[in-house]
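Internal QA ticket QA-208
Title: Verify multi-chain structure generation after dependency bump
Assignee: T.L.

Test input:
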Amino acid sequence: MTTNNKIFISGDEAVAQGVKLCRPHVIAAYPITPQTITVERLSEMVEAGEMEGIYMHVESEHSAISAAMGACAVGARTFTASSSQGLLYMAEGLHYCSGGRWPVVMMNANRSVALPWSIYGDQRDSLSLLDCGWIQVYVEDAQEALDMIIQAYKIAEHKDVLTPMMVNLDGFILTHTYELVAIPEQKMVDEFLPVFETPNKMSFEEPKNLGFSSKPDDNTEFKYQQNEAMFNAIDVIRDVDQEFAEKFGRKYYDMVEEYQCEDAEVVLVALGSVCGTIRVVVDKMRAEGKKVGLLKIRYMRPFPEAEVKNLARRVNAIGVIDKDISFGYEGTVYTNVNSAISKIDKYVYKSNFVGGLGGRDITKAEIEEMFDKLFFGVANKSEEKVEFFSLNVETND
Amino acid sequence: MTNLVDIPKVNAKNMTEKEFFYGHKACAGCGGSVAVRLALKVLGERTYTALPAGCMSAVGFIFPQMAFNTNALITTFPGAASMASGIAAGAKALGQKDVKTVVFAGDGGTADIGFQALSGMIDRNDDVLYICYDNEAYMNTGIQKSGLTPYGTKTTTTPAGENLPGSITHKKNMFEIIAAHDIAYAATASIGYPQDYLNKVNKAKHIKGATFIHVYASCPTGWGTPTETSIEIAKEAVDCGLIFLAEYEDGEYKLNRNPKEFASVKDYLKKQGRFKHLNDENIQCITEHRDKKWLRMRKNWL
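Actual output:
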């Protein structure tokens, strides 16, 4: 256990503090709202000599991820940060990075994507890039953001994983609000996170050609290995979280966190900061005798299939809140949750609530209404559906 | 800054016999592979090489057959310069000494899709030598027009017919665009003048910071020229004045060759399948463009 120094900082600043503690050799980032404060703080830390790493002023997000990969390819620990359009601009590099097995760590400030232009938060940026081969974790508050940066390096750099990792935090709701955050001691982080070492690097002792082409004879095997590495990450995530808890006294419940799910009849599933609001509603409804719960999904990749199935076996209804929409179908989180549930031998009533797009608040009243709809759906054997909640327009529903 | 006068010269006699780029699958007579091979002989073993999509990455890195004997990496297509910047930064942060990072990128990867990253790399003055091997089209994808394809070139996306003489734009002026960044050292070269090219690579090797060499490299496949004439045609391009040999150093331009008389533009063009269709009027247009360019260069750079 540690004597943590607590300071009052924003989520962006918490990320910067976490990055500093991990001693990256190279930081390459391009500013984009609402991520900017993170890169500003990091550049200040480099200026002040608090960090030894090199801060690269790259001219675009594409160059940010390219530079991070280049540095990682010689064995340097790297960090980058992005959001929204910037993350999408990196998309080519995201696939490249995971295929190259370079464990770059990135902070993504979840923000809506254009058009219409919006600087405010939803999760369409990262969720639309779910298939790019990065480990994706979603945090609920600034403390979790800082802690997950430290965990991210340990997970991503693990020899059985060697996969880049994206730490997602909701734009403005987390990036720009202030909280008391415990800052771990450098010495303890150094003990927890060893110096980055990887066989997958260019070196003068053993020169290598990286980033090569493969023929149809080999390509599937490379992709199989990449997929296996992602599954390997599940055990590593568990071990790292356990070790982190022992060292720093904060535990994040691995792939998911169940809240009041023990005897729950209906459960809402969500990612990120909205989980805080759902907890409050769960407490209120529990006080009224309603058996409701929250499943906070922390990792979208690798996906916590076992945990979702485990929960589905115990409840009557699962509602999924998606701050994203895959146009022409349903929310991406719902697709993933639904796929896991379909693999168990039991019927569970399901509903997908899409909303909070472009930064709109999701209120306690709306969440309570969602729980009520789930109870109603089970009792009345209603049709399962995908709905945009609290629309300001008339619909045919 | 390094005193470039004191740098020991490299030539065929004192150059290493080691090969750092062999066993590749380039076409017979490939000028780009000559440019890579010669440069690596000057740069030596402690070199990190970055290549974007293009002929040299396509022919050098087909798993499990790797053609680079030094550390090398295929980059994203737009990210050759930025990935090289990252390599240089990583090497510096890890305390590695006496290393050089070099990019070998084609004309499309340099003047078109990779231009932003290249500009950023020079702006930051990252310790990278960027070599553009210019074969005047996207040869790896089957001969399509790039920003460095000259006027009148027949490519698969600028077909020549009754209405158009092939490409209708002149080459983007990369050398001066790079110089305008106030880079410490930039040069043009041709594999037809190898000693000049070797000297320039050697100079760039000894400069800490961003440097740029634009080397003219023939492509028998794309140009419709016999494989055995690759060096000769790259030399003729310089002799007829369509390609010039120059340096930008300490804020000054310098012409390395200033021929009293140019060889025939028509002869140079007509030896190549890609220019076979050109009429006298087209050749006149190309010649006038050359003359204007030389007028400016002689006025300002001598």
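Spot checks passed. Chain A has two domains: 6-248, 256-388.
Status: verified.
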